[in-house]
């Protein structure tokens, strides 16, 4: 109902506009037609009457012109009022009455020519009104009836057949004009409604465009989650600061590259919704730590970048400490309490560079170098950091084809018993790249990070077992220790691969010892225990390497039924201090948990003697032998007196 009322008001409003906007051409045509008709057929007998009729018609038309001008000059909000419809309708219907008066009043004096002309003019007026007056259907219908029907009825009463026919034609024409007016009015209403809808749609679209423009601005300049600058907007703003520095408007600035520690674990364990809330919370803290001149950006994921208009290292250090201390405060989310830390890399303009992109890169390098280091959680860029990073990148690329280029080889370091007799060898991977020996401390972590450790580990196992097959021909009980990476241990085909290598070289399973680091105890215990148990059933022994430096649990070691524990070299090097107590403690535990102990990193006679006094059954280190090339290892084993050959690791 409300919509119908609204549409009625709309039709009336648009109808009034249509009537008045089309009125002047219609008035002009009416004036021309009335003047032509009155003065063409004027004579002495009707002179005064026709002049009077023409003057009345002219005065009425003048009044209508004035009314139209008044409407055009009226305020927009007043133009659609009902009084304008009444005024226009009155003038229009009076005009129609004057036309009918002319036809009826002067009919007795009509000649054939004047009769024909009058009918043509009246028909033309009616036809024109059908479209011009379509903005008001009642008005258009009344106009046609008033202007045509009196003359038509008059003609129908005449005795002449042609006049009767003209009268009937007039009635039919009147009906047709009314029907045409109805159709025109209908089309007009539909057009008005469509125009209204289009206008409303355009207005809605304009508002939507404005809204979308604002949203696009926000999207193009702000991070939707935190409200900080996004990457592109930050770079644009930072480039203006860079230009200010080049124009000597500022003395310099600093770039902070901030990365959250352990944020991925929050997403993985608590979900991305909690992760998003954490980012919002930390972003608010970041804003509180900085003034309005600092450019703050969410660079991506859990990374943030700041541009601070300060180059003093002391002040930037203080700000970094302030940020890290604020970030480390607990975050309370409903019933969750989350604690995170942040690592910050800092580069300074002009100390390190003046290019924004380069400074960001340098700050990223500094952050990466500091990641995971304590207690300092921030670092300033220096040239050594970049050199180290470039070396890592170079080595990582070189590792891709190192196996195919036969750049890897194995060396073997003897493990001796308390009597000094060799009982086993540990296979150690070595890499010679462009004539330079690369330390395993460098390339093993790179291989683990890239996943290439699985392929390389399989190669090591293959080569070590091939060597063991040669050694058992000289000593049937000599053992081979092979280091296994945690990533390699995770591989689905690991157990099958070990079994296949044992079968391929016909090696007794108990002669193969697999060394794992303590990090394996952080893994899925069910999977670890299952794989260890499967291989131990084959006779394979397991050793825990670098014991005491990681996260091992004695209960886990017991559950896994570990065969050997290798005490890390760091304790042996300090055995004359506190290391001795640790060695003695491990020996005591070994008796309870039923595993043997190997001390690695033995370099002096005094260390050997103290370990022997503690009852350590097996030792390894430079004191006995450095790692040997393949041929030297075979010769080392061959030259040992037959009576001194041990029976392997017990």
From TrEMBL:
SUPFAM superfamilies in alphabetical order: EAL domain-like (SSF141868), Nucleotide cyclase (SSF55073)
Domain EAL intervals: 392-641
TM helices/strands, residue ranges: 20-39, 51-72, 84-104, 116-135, 165-182
Keywords assigned by UniProt, alphabetized: Hydrolase, Membrane, Nucleotidyltransferase, Transferase, Transmembrane, Transmembrane helix
Molecular function terms, GO-annotated: cyclic-guanylate-specific phosphodiesterase activity; diguanylate cyclase activity
Enzyme Commission no: 2.7.7.65, 3.1.4.52
Ranges in coiled-coil conformation: none
Pfam families linked: EAL, GGDEF
Domain GGDEF, residue spans: 251-383
Identification of the protein by name: Bifunctional diguanylate cyclase/phosphodiesterase
Originating species: Buttiauxella gaviniae
Species classification: Bacteria, Pseudomonadati, Pseudomonadota, Gammaproteobacteria, Enterobacterales
